[in-house]
Structures are given as structure tokens and as C-alpha cells.
Amino acid sequence: MPRSLQGAVVVVVGGSSGMGLATGRAAHAAGADVVLVARDADRLATARDELGGSTRARAVDAADDVAVESLFDELGAVDHVVSFTGNQPLGSVGDTTYELYRAALDARVWAARNLCASGAPRMAEGGSFTFCSGVSAWRPRPQRAAGAAATAGLESFARGMAVELAPIRVNTICPGAFDTPVLDRAFGERKEEALRSYLSTLPLGRLGQPDELAHAAIFLMTNSYVTGTVLHVDGGSLLI
Ligand SMILES: NC(=O)c1ccc[n+]([C@@H]2O[C@H](COP(=O)([O-])OP(=O)(O)OC[C@H]3O[C@@H](n4cnc5c(N)ncnc54)[C@H](OP(=O)(O)O)[C@@H]3O)[C@@H](O)[C@H]2O)c1
């Protein structure tokens, strides 16, 4: 039987935008007590107001271990943590710096480490962590190796946590291209044109919608026998 999210405390890191906001909405609709976390307080407040009810918002950088510990200290018991932090920095291998690699790895792997280190001791029985990687872990593109290392590292880190923190379950979602503000930032008004050739070869032929990703996140929170997996939600991106 799937576990219910009714009354569960669900912490959504990256909950102010895109897939995280959609996951917060879905968890709220399923009766969860949602805590939205992101760095920008204004966007967070807007997201919290949209969800309403018991939804809380906390402005925290997940890559800051001290801040994450304070967050969980304040929250007390939690049931599920879902995190969407990460970036895809651009730069050829010769041009990239230690700082760029460090920032890419901090945003995904160190952030995930902080959430596990501070969240797991407060996690109720049946709890879970769900992280978000990206197709770059499997299909890297030129000048994106730092981001690819971070997404692949995150998937591997999550498998390590699935073993170390069991019976807490730890999984990763690997999204393809989703229609979120990330694409608007990357391509601006050229979004449709820039993606046309990619979408023409993609088996499902279109961008993913954030609620389709949220559906996968809810599955990983509520299925009690899935751990250490990478769930690909990508319209068939790995087939091309
Ligand atoms: N959209 C796609 O096509 C796509 C494809 C593959 C992978 N992904 C990955 O999927 C994840 C979510 O993407 P999205 O498209 O939903 O992005 P988005 O709309 O930009 O949302 C990202 C969210 O994460 C928060 N965030 C980022 N870094 C954070 C940090 N260090 N601590 C706390 N919160 C942080 C952001 O808020 P603040 O900036 O205020 O902190 C925001 O709420 C990202 O890791 C992205 O790389 C996206």
C-alpha cells in the first residue's frame, strides 16, 4: 500500500519555482504540511501565499551546512525531504576554474549531504529523501562537464545514502527538458526555436510540464519499497 502524505511534514528545497513549486503544490494537495525552502525570500513568500494553509517558507541556502542544521533544528520531526538545487555552468575544460567546479558540486552534492546529515536524524519512520539530477549525468554536452560531474555525483551520492541511512529511502529523479524558468533564463525568447531540433527527435516530442515531475516526486515519497534508484522522467531523452 502506498503511504499517505496526509499530515506528513514535506520539506521541498527549491520550492519557490519550477519543479519544486509544482512538487510543493502536489504535496499540499495530498494533505502534507509543506515547508518551502529556497534562497530568495520574496519568491518564497509568493509561493507560500499561493499554496496557503499550513505552508511554511524558510529562506536557506542548502549549500550552507550551518544554515541547514539550524533549519532542521527549528523544524523538528520531518517525514520527507525533496530537493531541486543545482545549476549547469557553462565553460570549456580549459576555461573552467576550481571555483566553478566547486560551486557546481556544492549546489548539488554538498547541498544533498547537508540535507541528509541534518534531516536524517529528525526523520520519522517511513521517511525519504528525493534528489534531482539531470540528463547531463548520462548525456553530457560540450562545455557542460562541471554540471555533468555534479549530476552524476549526486546520483552516486544518493545511492550511498540509500545504503547508509536505510531504512530511510533515498532516490533521485533525473529530469529531461522541463518547461520551467530555467529554460527562459537559458534561451529567452528563442526558447521554441532553440529546442525545436531536440524536440523533433525526442520520442514524446515536447517539453515536460512541472506537474509531471511532481507526480514522480510524490511516487518516490509514497512508495515504501523503492530506494537507491534513479527515476528517469525525460520523455525518452536517453533513447536519442
Ligand atoms: N528545467 C529543466 O529543463 C531541467 C532539466 C534537467 C535538470 N534540471 C534540474 O532540475 C532542478 C530544478 O530545476 P527547475 O527547472 O525547476 O529550476 P528553477 O525553476 O530555477 O527552480 C530552482 C529552485 O531551486 C532553488 N534553489 C537553487 N539553489 C538553491 C540552494 N542552493 N538552496 C536552496 N534553494 C535553491 C531556487 O530558488 P533560489 O534561487 O531563490 O534559491 C528555486 O526555487 C535543477 O537542479 C535543474 O538543474 C532542470
How would you describe what is shown here?
Strand 1, helix 1 and strand 2 (33-38) form a beta-alpha-beta unit. The protein is built from 8 helices and 7 strands; from the N terminus they run E-H-E-H-E-H-E-H-E-H-E-H-H-H-E. The termini are far apart. The radius of gyration is 17 Å and the shape is globular. It is of the alpha/beta class and 240 residues long. The longest helix is centred in the middle third of the chain and has 22 residues, at 98-119. It has a single domain, classed as Rossmann fold, CATH 3.40.50. Helix 3 (65-75) runs parallel beside helix 4 and helix 4 (98-119) packs parallel to helix 5. The protein has a 7-stranded parallel beta sheet with strand order 3-2-1-4-5-6-7, sandwiched between helices. Bound molecules: NADP nicotinamide-adenine-dinucleotide phosphate. NADP nicotinamide-adenine-dinucleotide phosphate is lined by residues 13-14, 16-20, 37-40, 43, 61-63, 84-86, 88, 107, 111, 132, 134-135, 175, 177-178, 180-183.
Notable characteristics:
240 residues, alpha/beta, Rossmann fold, 7-stranded parallel beta sheet, 7 strands, 45% helix, globular, binds NADP nicotinamide-adenine-dinucleotide phosphate
